[in-house]
């Protein structure tokens, strides 16, 4: 096989949703994923999702992952696992390596990049010690590898990832010593913070980590209070005995392939930094190359699935699988779903940021 | 014990098929198919490599194969990401110093 | 609304809850077992509305609206307790007995208590408030692993208690 109609790079929530919509439209789709299993980060999300029925609200991420895989199977979608994409060009030629052994190249009519994101690091003295890790890494360890990364854990960051992973660490049997937040107010949804608070976890607002203590691994952590200019207040240092420090300080889109392909980018801090400019169909500035999910701006799995659907529908439509009216109708339904997720005080910020991306593409 | 055998959401796992791995010359048991990083954590090993210039210890950081902090020498091949590489019976794993070195007898040449 | 306690301590104060549209008043509690929804921040979510068999919970559109409960319709059945992705709903019965009240709350930890066990009941900040006795453990399939535990405890701590301490 050296030609395909829609190639989707990344088999997480966005990529699988894109593939399903593409295949439903009648296009031949291929999903490429570097991991041994598709599903991306869905299989470590063991909490019930928010949203409403059409967003699969109330269903746990793992179960949504299973549903997507079943649907992909039913639609006979081809998935290449253990396959790393190294480059793509403007002519939509993709090249990479399969099973760490064999190189391949394939020309696609349309490409959908659904490559996800990577966790940000926060630097402090001792941050490279074994025992300091991303919150998502700890989540992978407990929920996928069924392995506790530590017994006494400090979380840095009170956004949804920080509080959800703290909760899940307790479900796995660890003790969460505290959640440190540099801002004066907590970042995550109140229902999440309330859940860990009633389990006895302390929040340290206006605090940060001043250093991790330990020779060969984390043995303790020193936290310090911050003033209104985010400067540490001398004399407020406090040492907490922990063996693990988790960092939940946001994510950065994994945009390498979009850069290589030559897409225009726009810098939107709230969306995680540089994101490929894209329009309402999720198409980047390179004709026929689409983005969906965290690579197009950091949000969450629910929105990633909707964006994947948008990309899938529109990539298929541009190949002639839908007439214009159908394309518009289907696109509109998904946009209504997306807008429902992007409202309220939390969603509104994301909506504004997304609008900036859309505006940059039009301009 | 760092292995999570009982879980309120994911359910219980029973004992699984074990394989033997060698880490820096010592034998350890691991569950077949689990990631090397998880197998090492379950054997109380958290330091996977030392940096080239300052010889500082490193362990896992991102856990999903992006950051390469957790690389080790596996069956003679250096810079193998242990967080996304499953164990195999008889696997020989070594703490990596600096960028590591290729050793003879690597399985994949 | 500022929700200062929610956004600094992590959990809402009773004052903040009383300002929210769904928090029951004294006369509502006198009706018998009813659902209490501690959801005071506009997030996009409405499974409570979808789950309620009596149509007592209303979110409407946009789905970021705070839920409202019609306590005339709510029977305190508890289906919404396991359905809420935020684990923000429990059932409270002020009329349980002369001295005791009853709560049914979501619990997603192990180990589980046994029926009849005396456990530590906790408040919104995780503080131990009083002892309670487990009367029911509902781990039905429809709950999807969100166990709903019922426990009785002294009436004087009616408002403060919202859960039990992990075992």
TrEMBL record, chain A:
One of its GO terms (molecular function) is oxidoreductase activity. The keyword tRNA processing does not apply. It comes from the Bacteria. Residues 5-308 form the FAD/NAD(P)-binding domain. Keywords: Oxidoreductase. SUPFAM superfamilies: FAD/NAD(P)-binding domain (SSF51905). It holds the Pfam family Pyr_redox_2. This is Thioredoxin reductase. It comes from Marinisporobacter balticus.
From TrEMBL, chain B:
Keywords: Oxidoreductase. InterPro entries: 2Fe-2S-bd_N, 2Fe-2S_ferredoxin-like_sf. This is 2Fe-2S iron-sulfur cluster protein. One of its GO terms (molecular function) is iron-sulfur cluster binding. It holds the Pfam family Fer2_4. The keyword rRNA processing does not apply. It comes from the Bacteria. The keyword Oxidoreductase applies.
From TrEMBL, chain C:
Keywords: Iron, Iron-sulfur, Metal-binding. One of its GO terms (molecular function) is iron-sulfur cluster binding. Residues 1-11 have a biased composition (Polar residues). The keyword Calcium does not apply. Residues 65-94 form the 4Fe-4S ferredoxin-type domain. Residues 1-21 are annotated as: Disordered. Transmembrane segments: none annotated. Pfam families: Fer4 (PF00037). The keyword Iron-sulfur applies. This is 4Fe-4S binding protein. It comes from Marinisporobacter balticus.
């Amino acid at each position: 096989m050296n030609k395909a109609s829609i190639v989707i790079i990344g088999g997480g929530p966005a990529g699988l949703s894109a593939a399903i919509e593409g295949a439903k439209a009648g296009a031949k789709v291929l999903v490429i994923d570097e991991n041994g299993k598709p599903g991306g980060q869905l299989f470590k999300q063991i909490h019930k999702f928010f949203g409403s029925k059409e967003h699969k609200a109330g269903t746990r991420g793992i179960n949504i992952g299973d549903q997507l895989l079943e649907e992909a199977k039913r639609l006979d979608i081809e998935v290449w696992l253990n396959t790393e994409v190294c480059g793509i060009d403007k002519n939509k030629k993709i090249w990479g390596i399969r099973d760490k052994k064999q190189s391949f190249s394939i020309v696609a009519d349309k490409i959908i990049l659904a490559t996800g994101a990577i966790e940000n690091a926060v630097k402090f003295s001792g941050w490279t010690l074994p025992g300091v890790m991303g919150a998502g890494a700890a989540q992978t360890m407990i929920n996928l590898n069924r392995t506790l990364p530590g017994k006494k854990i400090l979380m840095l960051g009170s956004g949804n990832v920080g509080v959800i992973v703290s909760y899940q660490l307790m479900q796995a049997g660890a003790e969460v010593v505290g959640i440190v937040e540099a801002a004066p107010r907590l970042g995550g949804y109140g229902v999440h913070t309330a859940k860990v608070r009633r389990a006895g976890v302390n929040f340290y607002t206006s605090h940060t980590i001043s250093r991790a203590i330990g020779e060969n691994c984390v043995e303790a952590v020193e936290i310090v209070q911050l003033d209104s200019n985010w400067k540490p207040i001398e004399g407020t240092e406090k040492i907490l005995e922990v063996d693990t420090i988790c960092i939940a300080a946001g994510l950065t889109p994994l945009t390498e392939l979009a850069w290589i392909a030559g897409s225009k980018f726009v810098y939107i801090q709230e969306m995680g930094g540089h994101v490929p400019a894209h329009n309402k169909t999720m198409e980047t500035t390179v004709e026929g190359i689409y983005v969906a999910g965290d690579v197009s701006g950091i949000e969450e799995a629910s929105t990633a699935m909707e964006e994947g659907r948008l990309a899938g529908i529109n990539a298929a439509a541009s190949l002639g699988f839908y007439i214009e009216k159908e394309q518009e109708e289907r696109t509109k339904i998904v946009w209504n779903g997306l807008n429902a997720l992007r409202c309220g005080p939390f969603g509104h910020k994301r909506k504004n940021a997304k609008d900036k991306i859309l505006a940059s593409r039009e301009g | 014990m760092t292995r999570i055998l009982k879980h309120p959401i994911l359910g219980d796992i029973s004992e699984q098929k074990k394989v033997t791995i060698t880490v820096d010359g010592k034998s350890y048991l691991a569950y077949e198919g689990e990631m090397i990083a998880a197998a090492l954590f379950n054997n109380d090993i958290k330091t996977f490599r030392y940096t080239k210039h300052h010889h500082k210890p490193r362990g896992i950081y991102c856990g999903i194969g992006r950051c390469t902090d957790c690389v080790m020498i596996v069956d003679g091949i250096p810079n193998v990401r242990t967080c996304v590489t499953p164990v195999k019976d008889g696997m020989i794993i070594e703490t990596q110093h600096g960028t590591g070195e290729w050793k003879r007898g690597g399985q994949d040449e | 609304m500022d929700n200062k306690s929610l956004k600094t301590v992590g959990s809402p104060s009773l004052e903040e809850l009383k300002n929210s549209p769904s928090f029951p008043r004294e006369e509502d509690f006198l009706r018998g077992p009813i659902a209490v929804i501690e959801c005071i921040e506009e997030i996009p979510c409405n499974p409570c509305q979808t789950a309620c068999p009596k149509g007592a919970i209303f979110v409407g559109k946009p789905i970021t609206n705070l839920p409202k409960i019609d306590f005339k319709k709510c029977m305190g059945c508890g289906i919404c307790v396991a359905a809420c992705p935020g684990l923000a709903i429990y059932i409270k019965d002020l009329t349980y007995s002369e001295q005791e009240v009853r709560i049914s709350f979501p619990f997603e930890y192990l180990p589980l208590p046994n029926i009849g066990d005396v456990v530590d009941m906790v408040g919104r900040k995780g503080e131990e408030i009083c002892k309670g006795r487990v009367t029911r453990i509902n781990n039905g399939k429809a709950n999807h692993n969100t166990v709903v535990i019922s426990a009785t405890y002294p009436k004087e701590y009616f408002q403060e208690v919202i859960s039990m301490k992990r075992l």
